[in-house]
Amino acid sequence: MNAVNDSEASELEEITKGQTTNELKNNLITKQYDKYLSKVELFAQGLILLIAGYDTTGSVLQFAIYMLAMNPEVQAKLREEINYVLGEEEQISYEHLKRMEYLQAVVQETLRMYPPAPGSNRECNSNLNINGINLREGDLVFIPIYSIQHNEEFYPEPEKFKPERFIREGKTSLDPLTFLAFGLGQRNCIGMRFAEFQMHIVIALIVRRFNFKPGPNSPSLPLEFESIMLLRPKEKLVVLAEDIL
C-alpha cells in the first residue's frame, strides 16, 4: 500500500500539470478522486491487472513449452505449420497468426489442461433452481474449472495432450460450456483476445527458432500442482532449448 500511495502522489502531481503519459493509472487515480474508487479499491484494481495480465499468461506459456518438449510429434507439427505460413518472412503479423490453426489448438489444449485459474467464484444475482438445486440471490457459487476440463465425459483421455481436440472436426463436438479457461458470458475475461495474441506470437517466435526437449530432473507426466490463486507445478519444469536457425 505504501508503494501505491507514493506512486499515486507522484502521478497526481503529473496529472495536475498535464504531464502524465500513463493513461491507465491516470484513469484509476482520477476515478478515485471523483469518489468512484477508494485507496483499497485502487490497490485491488492494480493487483488484479498485474496478476490477470502478467502471471496468467506466463503460467500458460511455461506449460505450453513443457508440453511441446514432452510431445515432440506435436512440436514438429506446430513448427511445420509456422514455417509454412511464414515462409521467408521474419516478422509475424496478425494475419499470419489467423492462419495458424494448429498453433491456436496448441494454446487451447494447454489452457484446457492447465487453466491459470483452476476455479472461479460467482455470486447469484437472483433466486433460481438448477437441476433441483435451489440457489438464492447473494449465494456464492464455486466453479471447478480444472475438474470440468479434465472430465472424461467431455474430454476423452483428459491427461493426454491432444491439440486435435480443437481442430475443426473435433472442435464441433465440444460443448462450449466445458471450456472455461477465460470464463463465459458477459463477465468473461476482458483481456482474452489480448492474452491469446500474446501467447500465439510468443510461441510462434520461439518454436520457430528453438527445438525443446525435457531437461534433466524434469518431472514426469501427469504433473502435480500447488495453487493458491494460480495453477503452479510443484516441481520446476526444466527444458533444454536447441537453436535451430
Automatic annotation (TrEMBL):
Cofactor: heme
Gene3D superfamilies, alphabetized: Cytochrome P450
GO molecular-function terms, A-Z: heme binding; iron ion binding; oxidoreductase activity, acting on paired donors, with incorporation or reduction of molecular oxygen; steroid hydroxylase activity
UniProt keyword list: Heme, Iron, Metal-binding, Monooxygenase, Oxidoreductase
Binding-site list for heme: C189
Top-rank taxon: Eukaryota
Any Pfam family the entry gives: p450
Functional description taken from the UniProt entry: Cytochromes P450 are a group of heme-thiolate monooxygenases. They oxidize a variety of structurally unrelated compounds, including steroids, fatty acids, and xenobiotics.
Family (UniProt): Belongs to the cytochrome P450 family.
Protein name in the entry: Cytochrome P450
Organism: Meloidogyne incognita (Southern root-knot nematode worm)
